[in-house]
């Protein structure tokens, strides 16, 4: 299985869009490089009207990569460009995107009202690329750990917001194409910038945005499962996959199903145009199996969506619980009870197999001790 950075893949797509569309602009604070979107600099310069030093990135007064350390100004400028009918995207660290929350809410109101004005043309979507995610800010610490804008956007009573969670680089490309084709919506797409396994081929990845927002990952799933593991977000998916492998090794007779969620909208799994129905939910998640979910953002956000589809007794959601630090990647997961072992512990507890609960807790404690002493994790993905 190959590994690839979703951010680098999207950087290449941004580069191609710069070539294809001379009116396309990209807006970002000083994070285009750190978020690994640098392929754009092969074909376009950064907007700059002061003397250029020899160590600078490509810069010119006509540059279409607009950087300024003010998310509010950047968002306002981008909106002017979009309202003129031209495509643009904005990228930023996940933790700083909430700075533009009020402006986004105002834009959602504008889109809603403009749909009632017959002479107004549809506009390109507000497309936001959110990376440098809370789970992997191991050098910046707690100040750089916040998925709060996901919760804000999913709480707005409208059919005008899509929150997208690409599982890998192939799905990130499909998400990019979906965003460019969208009109009169807000698309907030969240992904890690580090290299992660690529699970889906291009054809399957491309089909994910035509369906109900979730897919059964067949190679790690059984028919008639005893438990369903669900995950939304690239790192969350990886942990859920590893949890399945751990449980299958320790409990060979256990029947499990892994469901990958790629998009959420207001009170729904799926996008605004393809919201999952109750019937589709029952087919994918079953009618009565316990569901152990791993979510990129705050657990309560996903719980609220699941409550539309099923009874709360079935559900246990893990996610970012506002426990942060400057630490190793796996320790960030452990601090928020969102590791593969935390998912496995839920199932071991449900089955009343205390020796497995103790085994998994011991493994977590061993990683914690090692990370504190050596600054690295004992546990890495084997997916």
Keyword list:
383 residues, alpha/beta, Rossmann fold, eight-stranded mixed beta sheet, 12 helices, 17% strand
In short:
This protein folds into two domains: 3-197, 3-Layer(aba) Sandwich (Rossmann fold); 211-374, Rossmann fold (3-Layer(aba) Sandwich). Helix content is 37%, strand content 17%.
Descriptive account of the structure:
This protein is α/β, with parallel strands linked by helices. The chain folds into 2 domains: 3-197, 3-Layer(aba) Sandwich (Rossmann fold), CATH 3.40.50; 211-374, Rossmann fold (3-Layer(aba) Sandwich), CATH 3.40.50. The chain contains 12 helices and 17 strands. The chain has helices at 6-20, 71-83, 101-114, 148-154, 169-181, 202-207, 234-250, 278-285, 299-306, 329-335, 340-350, 354-374, and strands at 3-5, 25-28, 46-47, 59-60, 65-67, 88-93, 126-131, 161-164, 186-190, 195-197, 214-216, 227-232, 256-261, 263-265, 268-269, 291-295, 315-318. The strands form 4 sheets. An 8-stranded mixed sheet has the order 5-2-6-7-9-8-14-15, sandwiched between helices. Strands 11-13-12-16-17 form a 5-stranded mixed sheet, sandwiched between helices. The longest helix is centred in the last third of the chain and has 21 residues, at 354-374. The termini are close together. The relative contact order is 0.11.
